[in-house]
What we know:
Blueprint: E1 18-19, E2 26-27, E3 32-35, E4 38-41, H1 42-58, H2 60-87, H3 92-95, H4 98-103
Antiparallel strand pairs: 1-2, 3-4
Amino acid sequence: MDISSSKCHNHLQREAVAVCLKCGRFYCRECVTEHNDQVICSSCLMVKDEPIFKKFKLRKPFIYSLLFCIGIFSAWIFFFYIGDMLLSLPSDFHDGTIWERVVK
Ligand SMILES: [Zn+2]
Ligand SMILES: [Zn+2]
């Protein structure tokens, strides 16, 4: 197939000016990008980036367990301070008279 008579794979009305080195399809200027001195289309560029996402997915359980630990820890801190606050409350809080003192 001759490139001069071919149309862009994404834009059927546009003349193709480049061939993707990965998939071998014809594309217009807009649809191709240079990646490590190689002309490839945007969809092949996405495929190229996929291992990064796969790596990220593999690390997700680790991230979740880390978040779980942080959650447990922050809950412990939270209840620790709640308990500490309850202990330090003035005794007249329970009588209901503390509000009178605050207002006055
Ligand atoms: Zn391609
Ligand atoms: Zn195009």
